[in-house]
Structure formats: structure tokens, C-alpha cells
Amino acid sequence: MSAISAPTVNDVLFDKIAAMGHEQVVFCHDEKTGLRAIIAIHNTVLGPALGGTRMWQYASDADAILDALRLSEGMTYKAAVAGLNLGGGKAVILGDPRKDKSEAFFRRYGKFVDSLGGKYITAEDVGTSKMDMEYIAMETEHVSGLPEHKGGSGDPSPVTAYGVFMGVKASAKKVYGNDNLSGKKVMVQGAGNVGRYLIDNLMKEGAVVYVSDIFEDQIQKVTSAHPSVKVIAPADVYSVDMDIYAPCALGATLNDETIPQLRCAIVAGGANNQLKDTDKHMRMLMDRGILYAPDFVINAGGLINVYSELEGYNRQNALSKTEHIYDQTLAIFEAAQNEGISTLEASVRIARRRIEAIANIKTRW
Ligand code: NAD
């Protein structure tokens, strides 16, 4: 992904957008509701740009723009590698999700989404909820991930976790020559939605699971279902003697401080944007001989789930498609080895090649 700094007043925004390859960036403003949003459409060669709407109090407008640009680019690669006919997009709403929400606010935002005529399809993300999506859906059909009672696909987390599990198994196959996780020590950081479902899968396979969370009630949900799971203090996560580190909390946990502490052979988890500085920290993992399963490859189950909703939802189909993450992860490891590049670079190359190939077919039409 492009290493690009936050735009400043001295920068030309168009140059930034061109450098990252975005097709369209839409600034939405509504005085009456106080809505300020940015919808970034990175690439629509494969299909409509699908990506969640994040609501966050950004330190500056430039930070909000950069977040929208980066996240939408990431969605392009995630969809392309997963073999979906979707492009990459993402939206950010500038505001406090605890204070600035109202029905009118999200319905006005829904009208902006609708004005793009289906080029951008939205979904839930950090700071937005199912209720917000229901308000958006009152003004546009271009919203996904609605609750099951509204005909949607419901909570994507079990499918995301299943895909992460496939990625963990593929990584074990690469490192140990066998994908059976029985007896393998797996450190799951974050006992949230994805982390808990991942632990269910790991326990079924006989892995030795460690868990960490900053909230006691989250930990208890795990230990009451699986009493043998060992609890690790948040500060000790990186230095635990483990085979596999599965980050399932926040991003940027792979950084200058943590990578030297790691005592594992594999990093494979569900959290988005795990590498704090993409190129530098990828290189540090390689130098330490740790295999990295790129986050956007193995956490694509949620996107696959939402995509299935667009085709007429069936959870079994979504899970079957998610199972391909196993083969795709192995193909990426293979390509990285053959081409002498990082697993991250290999994933982005595979994504770009697919987009290029399909773009050729489309222009020939
Ligand atoms: P969640 O909010 O349900 O869970 C996150 C958990 O991490 C919480 O229990 C939180 O207390 C814990 N946590 C936060 N900081 C921590 C720390 N320093 N140490 C240990 N635990 C910490 O979120 P989720 O839906 O499970 O998503 C987890 C990650 O996966 C996020 O990065 C998210 O962006 C990514 N992701 C989720 C999905 C999905 O379908 N839910 C899809 C793709 C990617």
C-alpha cells in the first residue's frame, strides 16, 4: 500500500489522490444536521466500491481525509484478493459517535450515499451501528450488513473468524508442513467478537489457547465457555512463549517495541492494519524469520459475508467461499517465496494483477 503522509494546506489534494489511484472522493456537508463526511472511492474496476462508514473524532480534517483514502485503498485489495466482484471504498463521518448522532443525521448521509447511484455501497464500521445502517437504508438501497430481521446478513464476526482460522491453518501448513493446530500455542489478543469465535474454532481443533483483553467481562465470556484457556496480562502478550500470535484487537500492534519481543513463528490474526509502519515492520518480521499472514487477506470473511448478501444471502455459501482463504493464503506464501518479496507485497501484487486483467477484459467489451 502507498506510504503517504497526511495532506497539509501546502499539498495539492489532487496529487495525493492521483498518487494513491483513487477514482473519486466526495465531500458531504449538511448544515442543518451538522453532517460532515468524506466518501472515498478507490477503484471500481471489479465492481461497486464497498466499504464501511467510520465515525470518529479526527484530530484534523487532513487526518480524516487520509484515513478515508487509506482505508478505501485497502478495501480494493481485500476484495480483489478474495476474488469478489467488488471495488474498494470507505467513508468517514467527522464527529463524536456518542454525541453527534440522530435519525436525521444518518438519513441525510443516506441521501449522499444514494446520490452516487450504487457506485459506493456502505456498511457498519468503527463508530457506526446497526441502527445507523437502518436509518441510512431508509434513504438508499446501497447499504449492506443489515440485521437478519431486515433481510440482511447480520453479524459478520463468525464468518470473519472462520476466515482467520483458515489463515492460521494455512500459515501452520507453511511453517510446520501440517495444518493441524492440535497442541499449537496460540495467543489471541482481544476477546471481542472475532477473537471469541476464533477461540471456539481453535479449541475444537485442540490448540493450546491464551487470551488477553483489557476488559475483565470480555475475558470472562471466553473462560466461562472454555475454562482451560489461559489468561495473559495485556503487557505480556508479545513475550509469551507461543507458536502463533493472533492479533484480534486494534491495529498497529506490530511495531518497533513489540516485534523484538515476539516469541512466535507466525503472526496471523483478524485485526485491521496490524503493521504500524507497513514496509518497515514487514521487513522487521521477515528479518526475525516470522511468517506474516497479511491481515486483509485472512480477515476478508466479513466482506465475503456482506457480498453474499448482495447475491441473496445464505450463510453456508458465505462460509464455503470463506474457506478459500486457506488456498489463497498458501498461494500468497508461495508467490512471496518464488518472487523473493514479502507476503504483504505478494498480496498487493496478486490484487493488482487481478484488477488489471479484468480491466483488460472490460475495455475489450
Ligand atoms: P470488538 O470491539 O468486538 O473486539 C475487540 C476487543 O479487543 C475488545 O474486547 C477490546 O476490549 C479488546 N482490546 C482493545 N485493546 C486491547 C488491548 N490493548 N489488548 C487486548 N485487548 C484489547 O471488535 P471485533 O469486531 O472483534 O474486531 C476485532 C478486530 O478485527 C478489529 O481490528 C476489526 O477492525 C477487525 N475486523 C473485524 C471484522 C468483523 O467482522 N467484526 C472484520 C474484519 C476486520
Descriptive notes:
Helices cover about 45% and strands about 15% of the residues. It has about 375 residues and is an alpha/beta fold. The strands form 2 sheets. Strands 1, 2, 3, 4, 5 and 6 form a 6-stranded mixed β-sheet that branches. Strands 9-8-7-10-11-12 form a 6-stranded parallel β-sheet, sandwiched between helices. Strand 1 (about 25-30) and strand 2 form a beta hairpin. Helix 2 (about 60-80) crosses helix 12, helix 3 (about 105-115) packs across helix 4 (about 130-135) and helix 11 crosses helix 12 (about 345-365). The two termini are about 30 Å apart. Nicotinamide-adenine-dinucleotide binds near residues 212 and 213.
User: What form results from the Cα inertia axes?
Assistant: globular
**What is the N-to-C succession of helices and strands?**
HEEEEHEHEHHEHEHEEEHEHHHH
The tally of helices reads 12
Mean pLDDT: 94
Which small compounds were modeled alongside the protein?
nicotinamide-adenine-dinucleotide
- Distance linking N and C termini: 30 Å
Decide which structural class fits the backbone.
alpha/beta
Helix content: 40-55%
Number of strand segments: 12
Question: How large is the radius of gyration?
Answer: 20 Å
**Main beta-sheet strand count, sense and barrel state:** 6 strands, mixed
Low-confidence stretches: none
Q: Beta-sheet strand percentage?
A: 5-15%
